[in-house]
Amino acid sequence: MALILNPLTKISHSIVAYPGSQKSFMPVNYPIRCRLSTGDTREHLKHTRGSIDVHGNENKVAQRAEMFKSMESWIESTVLPLLKPIEKSWQSHDFLPDSSLEDGEFFERVKELREMARELPDEYLVILVGAMITEEALPSYQMGINNLDAINDVTCCSPNPWARWLRGWSAEENRHGDLLNKYLYLSRRVNMKQIEKTIQYLIGRGVIFNFNDDTHLGVIYTSFQERATSISHGNAARLAMHYGDKNLAQICGIIAADEKRHETAYTKIVEKLFEVDPDYTILAFADMMKKKISMPGRLMYDGYNDNLFANYSAVAQRLGIYTTNDYADVLDFLIKRWNVEKLNELSSNAQEAQDHVCNLTPKIRRLEERA
């Protein structure tokens, strides 16, 4: 899971960057004040576990908890196998100069890495650093998802298949930030101390998710996020190859492949939810899309810049790393993947939610054309 663009954010046409040589370049950073309005607070208190769900349905939370409990054997047989055994997984060291080499050979490998990184434009580095900082805040994301009603792992070491999936997925995701961090450190193209401060700010600020503890909302959000991240890393890989950095292209490509596999897991989970609970699942899908799929790293701050997201969005859109059309494409893919248009025997509220979701893609594309 990495940084993706909220497509409805107003795009700025200016890029803020520190002046000076390329090696001291520090991409922009962005804070957002972490507070809830009075209305948000009332809404949060309204949707507490065990009494009322996010759609106002009383006494349904316990029923859905039983449903998720009944899915444990399916998670065990269908989703957990999508995790790769650790001994067969790639690690950061596979794509970077081997630290066990003798000094001369090691420094030669570092020199080669820096030679390839020299031609990367500053704007591209903005994207790379933004993605890396977001990945490094993984502890916040795992903690947030750990509170979902299907997982609720208060021990953080539960043998529950849902909890084991979350820990295994987080462990695989953790390598993404490690790899990008080490690459940027060796490249000498960015101000690493400032980046490290930004990571600390982000982890300290936490994360704002719009799904409270509702697993339906959580897995729909993550299905969208994982596919979007796979697209953005894939585009970053193609651009790295264009700029002549074959090593970085391989790095971004292997991360994109991980995200694609994780997308497969989450879309399978939502597909199963549509099978066993279509009414609530389509209500949750519509609710999540009304809230918009915003970035998990949107609380980033470096102590200076109040406009990181606007700056980042402009760069991502301009370079084609992740655009409004990509956002619409992801939504269109998920609608088809889950056969949303073909759902039948729904309640009246669920039918309204179905209509909303199915008519949303063209609206997003029209907004993009106007922008």
Brief characterization of the structure:
With 371 residues, the chain is mainly alpha-helical. The protein has helices spanning 38-46, 61-70, 72-79, 103-117, 122-136, 138-146, 161-187, 192-205, 215-242, 246-276, 278-291, 308-319, 324-337, 348-358, 360-370. The model is unreliable at 3-52 (pLDDT under 50).
How would you describe this protein?
42% of the residues are buried. The protein has helices spanning 38-46, 61-70, 72-79, 103-117, 122-136, 138-146, 161-187, 192-205, 215-242, 246-276, 278-291, 308-319, 324-337, 348-358, 360-370. The chain is mostly helical. The chain is globular. The chain contains 15 helices and no strands. The protein starts with 37 loop residues before the first helix and ends with a helix.
Helix content: 55-70%
Largest sheet: none
Rg calc: 21 Å
The H/E string reads HHHHHHHHHHHHHHH
Helical segment count:
15
Principal-axis shape equals globular
Mean pLDDT: 85
Please state roughly what percent of the residues sit in beta strands, choosing from under 5%, 5-15%, 15-25%, 25-35%, 35-45% or over 45%: under 5%
Low-confidence stretches: 3-52
Structural class: mainly alpha
Number of strands: 0
Distance between the first and last residues' Cα: 27 Å
